[in-house]
Design a protein that fits this description.
Layout (H helix, E strand, L loop, with lengths): L2 H24 L12 H41 L1 E2 L1 H8 L2 H6 L4 H27 L5 H23 E2 L3 H4 L7 H5 L3 H8 L9 H15 L7 H18 L5 H23 L1 H11 L6
Parallel strand pairs: 1-2
Amino acid sequence: MALADVLFQVGIVVAFGHLVAFLVVVGWDPRPSAAGAPLLRHRLRRNLREVIPTLGVLAIVLTINKVVRDVGVELSWLIGINLTGYIYLLESEFVAVVQSYANPTLTAYFGFMYVFGYTFLLTFPVLAYAVYERVRPLRVLFLTYILNYGVGFVCYVLFVAYGPRNFMPELVEPLLYQSWPQSQLLVQQVNVNTNVFPSLHTSLSATVALVAYRFRAAYPRWLPIAAVLAVSIIVSTMYLGIHWATDVVGGILTAVASVEIAIRIEDGRLTDTFRKWRGGDGVSE
């Protein structure tokens, strides 16, 4: 099976998930806007126009991350710090203990969540917030993605860290590849063996759940769905032997910081804080 076939499978499943989730979480509103166009279409166009600058920055950050994945490994070995041994000293065989509870049902569930659930979790809120009556949730979401990938870019250059399945293969099995070998074609496009700290699967999943909580009044039904998916994906990173618990903790801290900073940027509070830091109430001394 080629990469295109795997991408097609993921696309079909995620698209179906979007359709069901849209009807359950957002709902269909047939009312027209003041301009006469369908309301949801009007909101979509307006919100996309508003977030074009932020979306442009996100595209740049994603491009940089792609370049880093291609050439950053050699750079990491030149200037980076190998954290793998320190992580092992900190948590020892915790991931192996997690895997001791493995069974075919759990492996199928967590494997599905790691690939399909993660893709859905990152993309559905973009669709949902794009048709919301206010642009703020969508812009905050994009800002958090920028911050997450920015932290990942810096850490993946500064640190070298192998996942538990690579560091202690005699104790931790690559369960995802054993249960669905074709997934390796997809994972290799976004992951590098030496870039596991922090876990971006964890940070981005936790970020979506935290944003769902911050804007829970927008879509109350989305919060429990996002929370269950985020927890499942976070656990899957360890269950499948891809990440250490340390990577997960780092990812959660990244998520909390990213959401808080994004909210402050959107509200203008970060600029105010910087001005006060430079000189009182914004006037340089």
